[in-house]
Structures are given as structure tokens and as C-alpha cells.
Amino acid sequence: MTKADIVANIATKLGMEKTDVQSTVESFMEEVKASLEGGENVYLRGFGSFIIKTRAEKTGRNISKNTTIKIPAHNIPAFKPAKVFMEGVKTQVEVEQ
Asked: Using an 8 Å Cβ cutoff, are 11 and 17 in contact?
């Protein structure tokens, strides 16, 4: 599902214009991004949390030059789903084999 699909579904369900829904969705994403860039986690009860995870410093390899490089510690954004959300996915989505 893409952002356009989400906007279309919400617009249909609420009977709103797609442009209004799109600006709302984009504003939401900008707020989440700004909060994470400012060092704040975002908690949405019943859905999940957008959090900042710290990756430790590690040694990597440059395969083309066959040398080792030091990758510094850094922060990355991550999403942690709520328990209710995870249980819904576990019980309603079939496991592909």
C-alpha cells in the first residue's frame, strides 16, 4: 500500500477531498519526522511508537579495496508496534510458506 492508497481510502471512508486528506497525512508524517530529528520519540497508543535506536560503532569492510573501515555509532529511526497491533497481524495474516 502506498501513501496515495492510504489517502484515497481515508478520503472515501470520511467523504473528504483527497487534497485535504493528503495535506493532513503529509503534516502527520512531517510532525513525526520533526519529533524524531529533535530527539523525541512519538507514542501512538494502540498503534505503536516511532523511536530512535542507537547503533553501536562497528568495523566494516570495503570489498573493492579489501580494507577495513570503522563505522561510527549513529542513531536510526525505528517503529515498534503496539501489542494489540502485533496480535492482530499474528492472528489475521496467514503465514506464507
From this structure: yes
Question: Radius of gyration over alpha carbons of the chain, in Å?
Answer: 19
Residue 47 sits at φ, ψ, to 5 deg, of: -120, -60
Q: 51-73 pLDDT, tens per residue?
A: 999 999 999 998 999 899 999 99
Phi and psi (nearest 5°) for 72?
Answer: -70, 160
Predicted model pTM: 0.80
Residue 51 corresponds to which amino acid? Answer: I
Beta pairing class for 48-55 and 58-62: unpaired
Q: What is the pLDDT of residues 72-97, one digit of tens each?
A: 999 999 999 999 999 999 999 898 88
